[in-house]
Amino acid sequence: MISNYIMYVFLFCSLYFEVFLLLTYIEKRKYIKTEYLEKKSEYWPSVDIVVPCFNESKTIIATINSLLNLDYPKDKFKVVVIDDGSTDDSLKTLQIFKGNSQVEIHHKENGGKFTALNFAIENSQADLFGCLDADSFVDKDALKNMMPYFENPKIMAVVPSIKVHAPGNVLQKIQKIEYGWGIFVRKVLTYLNALHVTPGPFTIFRRKIFENVGKYKHAHHTEDLEMALRLQKHHYKIANSHRSIVYTVTPKTIKTLYKQRRRWSYGFLKNAIDYKFMFFKKEYGNLGFFILPLAVISIFSAIYLAINFVISNGHLVFEQISKIATVGLSFSKIHFDAFYINTNLVSIIGLFTIIGTLILVLLSMKLSEGKLKIKSDLFYFLIIYPLIAPLWLFGAVFNTIFSKTITWR
Amino acid sequence: MEIEHKREKTDWLKYFYTFLITALIFGTAIYISNYFSNKKMTQLKTMEDKISLDILSSETQFSLLAESSCKNIGDNTLSQEVGQLGDKLLYTEQKVGADNSDFQNLKTYYSLLEIKDYLLMKKISQECNDKTVFILYFYSNNTCDECQNQGYILTKLHETYPQIRIYSFDYDFNIPTIETLKSIYNIKNKLPALFINGKVTYGLKTLDEIKKIIPETKIWDKEAAASSTTESSN
User: Fold this and answer.
1) Are B109 and B137 part of one and the same domain?
2) Most A CBs within 10 Å, among B26, B43, B144, B206, to test the A interface
3) How far is B124 from chain A (nearest CA, A)?
4) B136 and B119 belong to one structural domain
5) Maximum CA extent, chain B
6) What is the pLDDT of residues A121-152, one digit of tens each?
7) How many domains, chain B?
8) Is there a single domain that holds both residue B158 and residue B111?
9) Sign of the CA dihedral with A23 first, then A26, A29, and A31 last
């Protein structure tokens, strides 16, 4: 059947990606422990961190305080808060920092995050420039740990490791594992020179890079993704400082998570279309030849596999409902018979893919948490995430095909 | 700041090794899947052979003892095994497809065994004058929307009255023996069709409707009620 062959192709791609990640990790795992561990010179570059703020009065104080607590020379470091036309009392709340020489507060009319970033870039004279979303907090050593990377003149941007801030409910615990997976993938992609996102929370750039590649664009509400692709287009090197930890507040409800992820996936697809010239070009190395095409394929394969899963299992559910409606509930003796274990090719390959995912998730947990401790979060992730992720992927593909614009919130 | 227009490095060798490993995993999956498929087919064949042997044994037993004793001939175990085999064949059909040649052989064999078992049990029933009821159920996996529900009802019927022996036949399965059966009992292509106590009914029949066709169920109900009353009074 043709649907089976499509499934084999998608499963082969998933398995190929997992093997590729694993091989790269095995190849580079020794370097991960030692890379850019110590700063060689005494020179500390000046850094401007912009905090774009739109109705963030609840978290903005904690965000700025976390920045002020950074272990970095005070005279070399400034926090620039851009109130992007907030309609709540964010601006009033920010007055607490009035008189603090390390904090600059600006107010402008609402124009979106990228306009706030560009406003700050235009007014910055610092060596390095970064951003921290107003719902994120930095670890004390986050900035300091990035400095050894900037001693390499080829590195133009350094991205941090992002973790979930105070995961409370099941959905946030699932995201905790997912963010851990993100830390792992980002590390591996660095070695392939294939990072294609410079995350909003605390990616630090050499400021002068913006003079060469231009400032931020609207970029379908994913300006951090577009900026990374633009840097890659110009063959600028992006590094990942996995020891620089940033904590971010994650969605608590399915609805907010769905909207956030749909925006990310939609942004990726739209930017992938804008940067389609990079696909399958040797010039763009692993990113153009492998990572970008596979990222697009993975969206469609996740949707296809999910639809297939729903159809096959929906059929079983429908049969059971039909049976109950016909003969009522009957609790006949259930006995296990190995004959009924599904051993077709799709199931066996699916099982191998799940084992591969599990190995990679465990490695991710070890890299992000420093130790391997199996908790209920892992089971939530493995069971619930494959069921909910296709929802926003489907939403993103639908909106991309039918050119429906996605709002920020 | 100068822009470095350096071509990025692509790890061709790593892509190749990754392909080899992935292909190896895929090959292993194909091998495992084939291994279990063959094992399942062998299991079905073994079951069929065992049932065939059991039928032959019952036939021989019947020939030897028919005139002196009717005990211990063709007990319900055989019927249960035929039922289990039927379930497994249905599952296999869904997995490998009805066109699979190995499956078709097994299904042909199964249909023949069913008919053989039916003929023998009917003969034993007549000779020994027991109250066994036989149902021949004709269904289709392609053209019958109500056949699945009829299957649930018949399973429930058999669970309630193990004395009823049910034999199911795929109406669309073109083998001479089923064609002969259809022609002998004049079964038309209006499915589901049930052949009970010499009469053919067409269309979905509920549990109560089938019970009405089989008067023995009333006797069995009474016997079951009486035995439960005795048990509770003890």
Assistant:
1) no
2) B26
3) 30
4) no
5) 109
6) 999 999 999 999 888 999 999 999 999 999 99
7) 2
8) no
9) negative
Same domain, B74 and B174: no
**Whether B22 and A282 lie within 8 Å, measured CB to CB:** no
Q: Is B1 within the bounds of a domain?
A: no
- pLDDT tens digit sequence for A62-109: 999 999 999 999 999 999 999 988 898 888 899 999 889 999 999 988
Q: Is B158 contained in some domain?
A: yes
Of the three residues B109, B129, B149, the one that is the final residue of a domain is: B129
Joined tokens for residue A341: 């274990």
Contact B11 A340 (CB under 8 A): no
CATH of the domain at B161: 3.40.30.10
**B203 and B215 co-located in one domain:** yes
Expressed in percent and rounded to 5, the helix, strand and coil fractions of chain A are: 60, 15, 30
In the numeric block, the tokens 């905090």 are attached to A51
Flag residues of chain B having pLDDT under 70.
Answer: 1-10, 62, 65-80, 230-234
Could you give the CA distance from residue A348 to residue A170 in angstroms, rounded to a whole number?
29
Domains and CATH numbers, chain A: 1-34+135-327+341-409 (no CATH), 47-134 (3.90.550.10)
3-class secondary structure per residue, A362-376: HHHHHHHHCCCCCCH
Nearest CA in chain B to A342: B95
Residue of chain B whose alpha carbon sits nearest to that of A14 = B22
B149, B204 in Cβ contact below 8 A?
A: yes
Residue with tokens 């499963």: A11
Query: Is B31 part of the contact surface with chain A (CB cutoff 8 Å)?
Result: no
Interface test with A, best of B7, B17, B25 (most A CBs within 10 A): B25
Q: Which of A16, A211, A286 sits opposite B10 (nearest CB)?
A: A286
Q: How near does any CA of chain A get to the CA of B18, in Å?
A: 6
Pair (B111, B141) in one structural domain: no
Q: Please name the member of B8, B153, B155 whose beta carbon is closest to the beta carbon of A287.
A: B8
What pLDDT score does B3 carry?
A: 41
pLDDT digits (tens, 9 = 90+) for A330-351: 666 667 788 888 888 888 998 9
